[in-house]
Amino acid sequence: xxxxxxxxxxxxxxxxxxxxxxxxxxxxxxxxxxxxxxxxxxxxxxxxxxxxxxxxxxxxxxxxxxxxxxxxxxxxxxxxxxxxxxxxxxxxxxxxxxxxxxxxxxxxxxxxxxxxxxxxxxxxxxxxxxxxxxxxxxxxxxxxxxxxxxxxxxxxxxxxxxxxxxxxxxxxxxxxxxxxxxxxxxxxxxxxxxxxxxxxxxxxxxxxxxxxxxxxxxxxxxxxxxxxxxxxxxxxxxxxxxxxxxxxxxxxxxxxxxxxxxxxxxxxxxxxxxxxxxxxxxxxxxxxxxxxxxxxxxxxxxxxxxxxxxxxxxxxxxxxxxxxx
Length: 325
What we know:
Elements: H1 2-23, H2 32-56, H3 66-85, H4 87-148, H5 152-179, H6 182-187, H7 189-199, E1 207-211, H8 221-242, E2 246-254, E3 257-264, H9 271-277, H10 279-290, E4 294-299, E5 305-312, H11 319-324
Parallel strand pairs: 1-2
Antiparallel strand pairs: 2-3, 3-5, 4-5
């Protein structure tokens, strides 16, 4: 009785497995390995059904020749063996799909970042070309009024208003430069980073060391913009959260790679916790991933933080090369 139940359960399970496999064949793009698996499952199902008839059906009309079991077993074994031998094709296909997905994600991310930089440049230009001349005209008008002022009260009011206009002009230049740094576009990555460090008033109280043998070398525009943004983001994160007194930044060009290293002596943090919830680190990682680069961030509470970044000078994906090595 137990043997009969086991055979019935085996028939049901193999039949269901065959039906599910047949329904999934379209999703596998009619892959040959999957078709061989379906044939093997079908043969095993018929084998179990034939065994059930031979053992438990007494009607002579339902006698199943033993040769049929041999043929069905041979077909199932052959299909399984061939499927296993060619299983690497299925894995290659899966790897191909995974690479296509990663490539698509990289292109989408790169397009988003390019669009972001495009709008940054547009807003920077509109601020500079639109608001700049208006504020300059207002300053000139105040200068004319200052010459015509007859009382000390009028002169004091005009001087105060001129100071406010001067501050507005400085703020406008800073906002425009942060949106799209003209120095980076005109003179390259090293000059852009140096300009950011020198013009940031918060860094005047911190020891900042920027070491690089590079001078006027130019690279792919996407690489320059993203590395500049990453360097600025790292520095701003240190200023806002680390309480550091020293920042070290280095940039090297070796063969077709750019290597950036960054460290501070701040309070440090839990890398995993910050990676899960910190938008700053997420933005940095996303930007480097858009170049197909590699970023490694290490930190412990009380021990500062270190970041090592490697990208191709042409913006090509180097993750695959690292995985192969």
